[in-house]
Amino acid sequence: MIKLKGIAASGGISIGKAFYVGKEEIIVPKSKISHEDISREIYRLEEALIDTRKTIGSLQKRIADEMGYDHAQIFEVHMLVLEDRMLIEDIIMQIKNKKVNVEYAFSQSLNKYTNTLRKLDDEYLRERAFDIEDVGKRVLRRMLKQERVSLDKLKEEVVIVAYDLSPTDTVALPKDKVLGFVIDIGGRTSHTAIIARSLSIPAVVGTEIANKSVKGDEILIVDGFEGLVYINPTEKVLREYQKKLKDLSKVSKAIHISRLLKAETKDGKSIVVSANIELPEELSLIKRYGAEGIGLYRTEFLFLGRRVLPLEEEQYKAYLEVAKKVRSHSIIIRTIDIGGDKFLSKPDMPREMTPFLGWRAIRFCLANTQIFKVQLRAILRASSEGNIKIMFPMISGVEELREAKKILEECKKELKKENKKFDEKIALGVMIEVPSAALTADILAKECDFFSIGTNDLIQYSLAVDRADEKVAYLYEPAHPAVLKLVSGIIEAAHRNNIWVGMCGEMAGEVSFSILLVGLGLDEFSMPPPTIPQVKEIIRHISFKDAQKIAQGALNFSTSREVERFLQEQMKRILKNDFYKFVNRL
Ligand code: PEP
Ligand code: MG
Question: CB–CB of 513/275 below 8 Å?
């Protein structure tokens, strides 16, 4: 048995067979070969090219059958590259003249090819460089025997083990086949972890060496509460966890029963508890977990992994479907938050040194107004059918808000001219997730209708801790006195200016912070659906007056550990025998 300790990223326990996903990054080795090895290396090249052609041919056929001939055409370029005589001859020449291994020769020739394309004036040809890189990776993986399995074809239920798993990979997964995630890099608020929590799939991230410890088919236990992974557990550990799984399902059944009751404190303060969603599959979870609407719809997931961005009509239909399904409650649609750890295939996004500080969210939208306007028009049109609100991510100051609002007004004018219906009084919110926005909340509040605190980013930016970097995850502290001061200041500023304030960062769904956040005066909590029943139940157990006192107490400590200890004690005191239901572990 091997026991690995990582970061608890999504609560729950799962037991199942490991499914190993290779690394995305490819390291190409360089070695000298002798004269006798030349023909063997050339043979390996031909073999890899033929094999990759076969794979792409069948992929092309499948896509044509499922999605139509037009979609399958993107693979034409792949095929042309695999048959390009000039490229193949260049590789063979390098093997012969420079006496290097085929992988190295292949990657050198391919780089030459793509660099030349990137310098051309023709945009179409420039874009082909990405297709060529893509097909190049396939050939290299084939030669290096590092094939990255196609995740959309999982046949049985498995625990996914990967070095890294991008949000794009995660979107493509058949979720009903995934029992758990074990991922070597990333932190609790990396977007793959967030999706796992939304889908209630236990996950441990930051395990560092899981990809080296697992080959596939081993039995794994994923303990997403404690951040533990057991590879080939002993009989004793297995029995222990089977019992925990049983107990867990009893507890969650008990909490689940009351999920539809309102979240109202004992002294009558009503609090809205809503859901964060990323994917259309999650819509069914809203009712199932008793959410009162959607507090954050992360629309960028509609855009990921796409070669052609969704047009206005497609987006309109997607938003309309959500609006119709959640008609009785409000839906906060966040405009695309691209960048950070979520990248588009198109338009070509530059890889930045510090993407979380770079061309992300509203910054990207204000620089790509065409993409922005298509989305705003689609949201506005859908607003005629439901209670939709718009929210801008990553606003860092009021000028950005004004610029975004100007574009929104332009869209409204256009739609009016075209006689298209929309909610003229649509509410407009700002995510407060950058420290400069938190500190100027009084200014922002005068120019919008509501705030939603994005603690995932607010913590990362105020504590200078990359939210996706497992090496500094120990510094990522929601209870840090600096974070609490910012959160408390934002809520006060909102109320001073008569607007409501919610929280859609992961902190809103952490039961250990529920009393504190109620006490600070938060009006709305938005979280991954599976955590909703617990948070609602905690709110029903407390009085606002008590919570206010506790919140004031929590603001007086010097370290997050002290804050956490204090909040645990208060929770035990208030919840008494029910405490065990909320600690997320047994
Ligand atoms: C946040 O930053 O808290 C947030 C909700 O947005 P995201 O996690 O998508 O960055
Ligand atoms: Mg954010």
Answer: no
Q: What 3-state DSSP class applies to 409?
A: helix
Helices and strands, counts by H and E, the chain = 23, 16
Determine the distance separating the centroid of ligand 2 and the alpha carbon of 339, expressed in angstroms.
10
Catalytic residue among 365, 411, 448, 504: 504
- pLDDT band for position 585 (cuts 50, 70, 90): very low
Q: What is the residue-wise DSSP string for 353-368? A: SSGGGSS-HHHHHHH-
pLDDT tens, position by position, 11-23: 889 999 999 886 6
The number of beta carbons lying within 10 Å of the beta carbon of residue 252 is 16
How far out from the chain centre does Cα 14 lie?
Answer: 21
Q: What is the pLDDT of residue 517?
A: 98
Angstrom CA distances, 226 to 237, 505, 530, stand at 15, 21, 18
Residue 63 pLDDT? 60
Interval 249-257 mean pLDDT: 75
Domain ranges of the chain: 2-23+152-254, 35-144, 258-583
CATH superfamily, domain at 258-583: Phosphoenolpyruvate-binding domains (3.20.20.60)
Q: Which of 457, 476, 513 to mutate to test the pocket of ligand 1 (most atoms within 8 A of CB)?
A: 457
Token code pair at residue 456: 């995932």
275: β partners: 294, 527
Work out the average pLDDT over 497-506.
98
Q: What pLDDT does 81 receive? A: 84
143 closest CA partner among 286, 47, 15, 246: 47
Q: State yes or no: is 448 an active-site residue.
A: no
Q: What value does the mean pLDDT take over residues 490-497?
A: 98
How far, in Å, is the centroid of ligand 1 from the Cα of 233?
36
Strands (E), 164-226: 178-183, 203-205, 219-223
Q: What is the average per-residue pLDDT within 104-133?
A: 79
Q: Which one, of 184, 187, 148, 145, lies nearest residue 163 by Cα?
A: 184
User: What's the CATH fold of domain 35-144?
Assistant: Enzyme I; Chain A, domain 2 (1.10.274)
Put simply, whether the predicted model's pTM sits higher than 0.85 gets the answer no
Q: Is ligand 1 within 6 A of the CB of residue 295?
A: no
CB neighbour burial string for 378-411, b if at least 16 within 10 angstroms, e if fewer: bbbbbbbbbbbbbbbbbbbebebbeebeebbeeb
How far is Cα 515 from Cα 548, in angstroms, rounded to an integer?
A: 8
Residue 95, pLDDT score: 94
Q: What percentage of the chain exceeds 90 in pLDDT? A: 60
Ligand nearest to the CA of 191: 1
365 is catalytic: no
CA 106 vs. chain centroid, Å, equals 34
Identify residue 404 by its one-letter amino acid code: A
- CATH class belonging to 2-23+152-254: alpha beta
